[in-house]
Input
Amino acid sequence: MENFVTDWLNLALRCLHIIVAIAWIGESFYFVALDNSLKPPTAPNARCRNVFGDFWHVHGGGFYHMQKYSVAPSDMPEHLHWSFWPSYTTWISGFGLFFVLYLLSPSTYLIDKSLLDMDPVVAVSAALGFLMACWIVYDTLSDQTMHVRTVAARIPADQPSGRCPVTRWMASMPRRMCSASRSGDMS
Output
């Protein structure tokens, strides 16, 4: 009976994982297509509001006006749609699948006795330890990358921002766009 439940759980998690992964990829393709279709904003004050580009489209009889901001706007709406469920559900279903396939019955898929005859407890501990170590490395690297981006976005344009010319350029970009749109020079 245990194998029967495990097999059905395996099938259900595989189906869920594939469906939500397709939804996540489709949503990513939509935003890539949206980014590639952005045009410079036509409204005179759009650059001062940090609008990078905008796009008009029609779907299902409704007209939509999408705007992409260079940085988060100063006045955020009360209800903000945040697209995180496809990626979270893909991750959760993938981890559930990892748990069902490898950790519930490690002798089936995790341990190859012809290569190394491991005890199931050791194999499961090694798999979880490897997963934890990779997560720590990934988290450390992504925190360092986010720190550089955050620092670059918060440095005022009139302040010296160290030796990095890219950081100075990124920090001054929104101000240069606003001053250029006020003077009429958009180069």
User: Anything to note?
Assistant: Residues 157-163, 173-187 have pLDDT under 50 and may be disordered. Helices lie at 2-37, 85-103, 106-109, 120-154, 165-183.
